[in-house]
Design brief:
The chain is α/β, with parallel strands linked by helices. The chain contains 7 helices and 4 strands. α3 packs parallel to α7 (129-147) and α6 (102-125) packs antiparallel against α7 (129-147).
Length: 165
């Protein structure tokens, strides 16, 4: 457990999340998800968590582990075609994790998702949070549209609104 990481998480708060993602940015991200899902039968969720607190922080829970927990809690796995995608940002660590259901993962693989995470993290290091998330959504959209094209009958199975934890 790193004291530096604990300090970052203890100093992170809702104000930092609001600064990185003001209402206009949250609305733009939601619109990007809506636009994306019109082109494919997949489902995308975006979650930003300011910082870990309590037991997860002192257990030194990794962002990947937390993202898997959130994937499960939000039931992103519960889609008809097993093609749900969670884009998770742990703001205090500026760490992006993409957790996907098996239907889409078998087409893209871990290296493909990691490349998207790295691209987003580059934006975040430069302070371009909204642009980074939207670029990530667009990259995920490319994979979903290729492997799960819109068929006209697809329904929106999961909410499009970003989740702030």
């Amino acid at each position: 457990m790193s004291l530096k990481r604990i300090g970052r998480h203890l100093l992170a708060n809702r104000a930092r999340v609001r600064k990185a993602f003001p209402r206009e940015a949250i609305a733009a991200i939601e619109q990007a998800i809506k636009t994306s899902e019109a082109t494919h039968a997949g489902q995308i969720r975006f979650v930003v968590e300011g910082a870990l607190d309590g037991a997860p922080l002192f257990r030194n829970q990794a962002a990947r582990e937390r993202a898997i927990d959130v994937f499960s809690q939000l039931r992103v796995w519960d889609t008809e075609h097993n093609n749900g995608v969670l884009i998770y940002l742990l703001l205090a660590d500026r760490d992006v994790e993409i957790v996907v259901d098996r239907g889409i993962d078998r087409h893209v693989g871990r290296a493909g998702w990691e490349a998207i995470c790295q691209m987003m993290e580059t934006h975040f290091r430069a302070g371009r949070f909204e642009q980074g998330v939207i670029a990530g959504i667009e990259a995920v959209t490319t994979h979903l549209a290729r492997h799960f094209p819109a068929d006209g009958a697809a329904m929106n199975e999961l909410p499009d609104a970003p989740v702030v934890l």
